[in-house]
């Protein structure tokens, strides 16, 4: 049996954006293939035309909890040593990171590569992908946080690429909890601040959450603020400024110091492919 499990987790309800389904499926073809890792698809409700209801402060709560439970069950049954999760919105990281913390309870850290904190409460916003890191710390949305069997401590998390100067009111827990963070400017030239954090905490294992929104839309267009013709100044959230080369360098440098046992990729929105697919759907020959 392979030591590594790949979860294709096309969850979209956490961001209330059906385009994440196609983004996840395409991502499963983009990532380097493996002849040994097992791939399993988490069953996701793909009734994409439905209007999601606000349930207990979270949009699409029932679907999200159902899918979270299935992902957790898969991990428990397969018991992998490493997990790659291909999303989907950012909430796809909760089940695998919780599982891996149970497997490596005394030596695991989280490197959260993201322009945003993902630490909001249900009083700050109703979208599940805004709560996920807060859930893993025992905060966030209570009905999701209570599902975390192995919560993390603040010291075990590094927010890297965070647009700290542009924090919104919904990001208040970054300061409330005194989170470790590194801005894009701190990581522009080298990865040493991340290496120092790993060394200070004596981590032996690391999980990485790679929200593609940490990247600049000029460097990587398959993200929400990379949508064609979008006025970037009107985008309602901080926009990432890092390059793919910088992120790759950070990951490679860190992997020389600590074993990466979990890797999640979220928020993949390949606009050219999405728009081409929608356009061709209007052509009769493709509907025959």
Summarize the structure.
By secondary structure, the protein is α/β, with parallel strands linked by helices.
Helix tally? Answer: 10
Write down the secondary-structure element order.
EHEEEHEHEHHEHEHHEHEH
Distance between the termini: 41 Å
- By helix and strand content, what is the structural category? alpha/beta
Portion in helices: 25-40%
The major sheet is characterized as: 8 strands, parallel
Which regions have little confidence, pLDDT < 50, spanning 5+ residues? none
Give the overall shape, derived from the CA principal axes.
Answer: globular
Mean pLDDT: 96
Count the beta strands. Answer: 10
Strand share of the residues?
Answer: 15-25%
- Cα radius of gyration in angstroms: 18 Å
The order of strands across the largest sheet is: 2-1-5-10-9-6-7-8
Structure description:
- With 288 residues, this protein is of the alpha/beta class.
- The chain has ten helices and ten strands.
- The chain has helices at residues 19-30, 61-78, 94-103, 132-136, 142-145, 173-176, 184-187, 192-201, 244-255, 271-280; strands at residues 4-9, 38-41, 54-55, 58-59, 82-87, 108-113, 157-160, 180-182, 205-211, 259-266.
- The strands form two sheets. An eight-stranded parallel beta sheet has the order 2-1-5-10-9-6-7-8, with helices on both faces.
- Strand 7 (157-160), helix 6 (173-176) and strand 8 form a beta-alpha-beta unit.
- The chain is globular, with a radius of gyration of 18 Å.
- The chain starts with a strand and ends in an 8-residue tail after the last helix.
């Amino acid at each position: 049996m392979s030591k590594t499990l790949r979860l294709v987790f096309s969850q979209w309800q956490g961001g209330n954006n059906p385009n994440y389904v196609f983004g996840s499926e395409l991502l499963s073809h983009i990532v380097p293939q493996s002849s040994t890792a097992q791939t399993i698809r988490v069953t996701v409700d793909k009734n994409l035309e439905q209007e999601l209801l606000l349930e207990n402060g979270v949009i699409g709560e029932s679907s999200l909890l159902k899918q979270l439970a299935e992902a957790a069950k898969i991990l428990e049954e397969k018991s992998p040593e490493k997990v790659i999760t291909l999303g989907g919105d950012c909430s796809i990281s909760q089940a695998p990171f919780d599982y891996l913390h149970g497997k490596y309870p005394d030596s695991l850290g989280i490197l959260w590569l993201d322009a945003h904190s993902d630490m909001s409460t249900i009083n700050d916003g109703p979208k599940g992908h805004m709560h996920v890191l807060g859930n893993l710390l025992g905060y966030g949305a209570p009905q999701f946080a209570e599902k975390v069997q192995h919560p993390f401590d603040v010291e075990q998390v590094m927010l890297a690429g965070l647009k700290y100067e542009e924090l919104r009111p919904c990001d208040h827990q970054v300061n409330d909890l005194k989170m470790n963070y590194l801005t894009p400017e701190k990581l522009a030239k080298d990865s040493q601040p991340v290496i120092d954090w790993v060394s200070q905490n004596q981590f032996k294992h690391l999980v990485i959450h790679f929200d593609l929104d940490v990247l600049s839309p000029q460097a990587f267009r398959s993200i929400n603020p990379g949508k064609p013709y979008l006025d970037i100044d009107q985008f309602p959230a901080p926009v990432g400024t890092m390059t793919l080369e910088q992120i790759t360098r950070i990951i490679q440098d860190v992997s020389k110091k600590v074993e990466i046992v979990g890797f999640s990729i979220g928020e993949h929105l390949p606009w050219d492919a999405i728009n081409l697919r929608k356009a061709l759907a209007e052509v009769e020959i493709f509907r025959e």
